[in-house]
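A student in our group prepared the protein record below, which I am reviewing. What it holds is a sequence and that sequence's fold in token form. My question to you is simply how this chain folds and whether the tokens agree. Do not assume that whoever made the record got everything right. I have pasted the whole thing underneath without changing anything:
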Amino acid sequence: MTGSPSTAAEGTASRPAPLLSVASAASRPVPGEDVEAAHAKARRRRSLLDDLTAVQFMLPLLAVYIVIVLIPFLQSVVFSLTDYDGYDFANAGFVGLANYRTIFSDPTLLAGLGFTLLYTVATTALVTVIALPLAVTLNRKFFGRNFARSLFFFFSVPSMAVLGLVWQYIFSPLQTGAVNTLLSRFGIEPVPWLSDPNLARLCVIVIAVWAQVGWHATLYLAYLQAIPADLYEQAAVDGAGRGQQFVHITLPQMVPAMGVSIFMLLTGGLKVYDLPYTLTNGGPGAATTTVTQSIIVTGIGSGRYGVGSALGVVFFLCCVILVVAQQIVTTQIERRLS
């Protein structure tokens, strides 16, 4: 006797589904996962296109850098190992490290390296110590604030070469110098500002600091104006004085600006040439001679391209060490304050 249709349907419904069908259903992607995977793929494609675009924009600059910086540096390394005189490299002989030994045995070249490092460290420290408080002062409201900002920035506008010529007249060791003329009216003997080695070094450093403070104060001022005023208001409500606000609010916020400023001061100080040359011509003796001037005089003036190139290579390594050390210190300070 055949069962009823309802009984057959119930038996079919109660029969378990094959395992293959269950596995296929489980492995079938969910529509939402398809959309997310498509979005992720599109994001990766956009990121790749952005990277390729950035590389395309960087390639011309990289090519210029290779031609102007990298290739000449490699040539200097090769020249430093030879007795090349600047005329016929084919006849230049290989001398090994003899040029480097000459550098560290020549008192004039060592004096140039020493003064350059002294100038760099002194100007960087003094400009930073003076420019930051000056920027804080110029950021406050007082009568004539805009005029004061323009005045301090104006000193940074003329080139160092022009400033060197002007200050050479002012600090002239003769009685015709402006400062000595003023001192003579008070019965004071002329001071050898530019003919005494120590005074000449001091004059170069002081003039450089005076010329750069305004620019770096303007840089700090731009960062100061970006600090939210709510931070100072909240600190004042909590009872913090100006000194505490400077230490706990201003100084941490100014670390990036200090990093930029110190980097520019270091690189500018290491390659300085125009101010000492126009002010003292590197004298008296070699008291204010810089590495750049030594390279020009030794390599081009004396025809000792090998020694000049060796000095350039040594100086380049000193620059790399100083700049890398500055970047590491700045990064560590930012991490501790963040």
